Amino acid sequence: MRIIKSDNFDKFVCSAGACPTSCCSGGWQIMIDDNSIDKYTKDTGDGKLNKRLAEGVDLVERCFTQKGNNCYMLDKDGLCSIQRALGEEALCDTCRIYPRHVEEFRGIREWSLSLSCPEAARLILGNKDRLDFVIEDTDEPENDAEYEDFDDDLYFLLFNARDRIFDIIQSRELSFKDKAELITAYTAGIQECIDNERFDILQAFIEDMHEIDGLTEVDYNALNKDMFSILFDLELLSPEWKGILENTWKAWDDDIRLTAKEELQAEQLLMFWTYTYFCGAVYDGWVFSKAKLAICCTWWIFEINKANDFNGGIIEAAYRFAREIEHSDENLNALEEYFMMRG
Q1: Mapping DSSP to helix (H, G, I), strand (E, B) and coil, where does residue 309 land?
Q2: DSSP for 229-255?
Q3: Per-residue pLDDT of the chain (343 residues; tens, 9 = 90+)
Q4: SS (H, E, C) 157-175
Q5: Among 40, 43, 60, 290, which residue's CB has the most CB atoms within a 10 Å radius?
Q6: ∠ at Cα 33 (29, 39), nearest 5°?
Q7: What distance in Å separates the CA atoms of residue 309 and residue 169, rounded to the nearest whole number?
Q8: Alpha-carbon distance 252 to 199, whole Å?
Q9: Nearest C-alpha neighbor of 63 from the set 92, 84, 42
Q10: How many other CB atoms are there within 10 angstroms of residue 9's CB atom?
């Protein structure tokens, strides 16, 4: 098994009770794995915790219940009652792994940090260097049975395409808007090859990003206000999010000029979204939508930050936005479908 990690991955340390907004709050559904369900329905040796688990675990939905928009197991000091009583090893998989995020492919596991965590967002946006990756080969056996229909050839083509997109993103001679146009044009070409089953020219196209003549006309302007309106149609996970969107809509500025510092932050955000989601197109063929996801989500975070008075600035704008998108499969899928239709 090959393990790939972003080079900031091992730098993460949870800020626990000092976190400005706990991952146990915000109303998102925390799913519980089967092994943890078994542990939580047995006697833990702590009568008080047993009672709380009986009230806080939804055995039908297999998740923790909510209390005041927080996980039922969250104590007033911002710490988890399960971890406090039984230690970190007693946490369910979701709580133990978060904010570490994994994408699985045949023989390859890609790890990254989730932007929805304030401390992870600080690490991501505070990086002034070009993001790099750590590659490790392990003795862990590959579970080929789970990937019987996996398209290895397409995956490696997408992997190579993503490397070329990384080159665009990390070119510091280009502005964010220049990068957005280049990435949109490049991935529109890849998408057209896939849609028309022109796999005979796909590899050559990926290797030479500049040969884009003859492509179908696409909407390269991913930064317009109209596209932002899709966010109003998504599931609301936090009560204040609608007000944040309304503030952004009213204050929208097509002509935002990013400072030198903001251009670096935009680079890190583009890298995050692209690394995390782009190669997932091997499962659905939606290359173009994943590129637009990266571009739009990055731009929207800047618009949201400039329109709202966040104490945490761009870091807070980033993790608030990511919580609404990444913590809901429904929202993430709706965005991808929207971008495919708008292509």
Answers
A1: coil
A2: GGGGGSPP-STTHHHHHHHHHHH--TT
A3: 899 999 999 998 887 667 777 777 766 678 899 999 999 998 888 888 899 999 989 989 899 988 877 888 988 877 889 988 888 888 998 888 888 999 999 999 999 999 999 999 999 999 999 999 999 999 888 766 678 789 999 999 999 999 999 999 999 999 999 999 899 989 999 999 999 888 888 888 888 765 544 444 445 555 678 889 999 999 988 889 999 999 999 999 887 889 999 999 999 999 999 999 999 999 999 999 999 999 999 999 999 999 999 999 999 999 999 999 988 889 999 999 998 876 5
A4: HHHHHHHHHHHHHCCCCCC
A5: 290
A6: 110
A7: 28
A8: 41
A9: 92
A10: 17
Tokens 């039984």 belong to: 86
Record the tokens describing residue 60, joined without a space: 């039908």
| Tokens found for residue 13 | 């340390």
Q: How many CA atoms lie within 13 A of 54 on its CB side?
A: 9
Burial of 68 per CB tally in 10 Å (0-12, 13-18, 19+): exposed
CB 283 within 8 A of CB 155: no
Please identify which residue in the block is written with the tokens 């009583």: 85
